[in-house]
Design brief:
By secondary structure, the chain is an alpha/beta fold. It contains 14 helices and eleven strands.
């Protein structure tokens, strides 16, 4: 036990030193983005966990500006792809074109070959285009013709979608949504925040974030975040949360049995553990506490559960179920 305590103490000191840049990045982003603390934290956790983010919210809530600002702080490549109903997979990943000069086909790479990709309004395009992007997310490579090309590192996709009820949208299939580490729902700013936003946009010069880190620093931080200590009790806690969405009756939640059509997949457990470690890292701690798991739980789980028609009829959402699960599962 003393050995573990000593290792955690050492790790704590190391993380205290190495994670200082997180505060610098956050401060730079806050110069540009007013409020939206949860969004900024989620973007950083996903970036340092090598995950992707699906953002849902009505237009005009700084979704695009947030990822653009994050790219500015990292000295990384940034591509914005506007998804439309007539978009083709080749518009995304690239294609082979015939060069008359060389008398052969050459590869023209698409905008997906960048570090940070903003897939704007991903639900405006049909499944063929969505799956081309999601393959790149999963495999970290793209095949054009008979050649496979590795994508740059770090590679992170931030996809935005308007709420599904809006017309002219193609809902993302469950298996594809599962590839996103987080689904973050953004709400309107407060009255005070909106006053600042108006002032900022009417000022002579709009603020811009400075470059703080290089892509290799991100890779170093990712490796260090993986070292964060997670006790077996925390692992059991994570499994309890995920299994409670699959077998609610076994966790004294029988009222959800008829409301959940399927629970969190193994990816939910993996991402919950990974995100909790990274959340501890950005809080400059070398060990995971239950609050870290609870802080990321809604974003990791909300898109990984299916609800029955009965749940929709009773106006029960995945948010309600996750909250109830967290209130009922014993905290270690």
């Amino acid at each position: 036990m003393g050995e573990i305590a000593f290792q955690i103490r050492e790790l704590n000191e190391k993380i205290e030193r190495e994670s200082a840049f997180v505060d610098l990045i956050t401060n730079e982003i806050r110069k540009v983005i007013v409020g939206q603390k949860h969004l900024i934290d989620s973007l950083l956790v996903a970036l340092l966990s090598d995950g992707h983010v699906l953002l849902e919210g009505v237009p005009g809530l700084a979704k695009t500006l947030a990822i653009k600002t994050l790219a500015d702080t990292i000295d990384a490549g940034f591509s914005r792809i506007q998804f439309t109903p007539d978009l083709l997979p080749a518009d995304l990943i690239g294609t082979m074109i015939y060069s008359q000069k060389k008398e052969e086909f050459i590869v023209r790479k698409g905008p997906v070959f960048s570090n940070l990709i903003l897939a704007d309004e991903i639900n405006r395009s049909p499944a063929k285009v969505q799956s081309a992007l999601l393959e790149a997310m999963q495999e970290k490579q793209v095949t054009i013709g008979s050649h496979s090309f590795e994508l740059p590192n770090p590679f992170m996709v931030l996809a935005t979608q308007n709420p599904i009820e809006q017309e002219g949208t193609y809902p993302l299939p469950e298996a594809q949504v599962d590839r996103f580490m987080f689904k973050v729902v953004i709400t309107y700013p407060s009255r005070e925040e909106e006053k600042l936003i108006v002032r900022e946009n009417l000022a002579m010069e709009f603020p811009k974030a400075r470059t703080i880190v290089k892509p290799e620093d991100i890779q170093k931080a990712r490796n260090l975040a993986k070292e964060v200590y997670m006790d077996e009790k925390i692992e059991q806690y994570i499994l309890d949360i995920v299994f409670a969405t699959r077998f609610p009756s076994q966790y004294k939640l029988p009222q959800f049995s008829s409301l959940i059509s399927y629970g969190g997949s193994p990816r939910a457990s993996i991402n919950l553990a990974r995100a909790a470690k990274t959340f501890a890292f950005i809080r400059r701690r070398g060990y995971v506490i239950p609050e870290d798991v609870r802080a990321v739980c809604h974003d990791v789980m909300r898109h990984r559960m299916g609800l029955t028609y009965e749940a929709e009829a009773e106006n029960v959402t995945t948010e309600d179920i996750i909250t109830e699960v967290l209130n009922n599962i014993e905290v270690p």
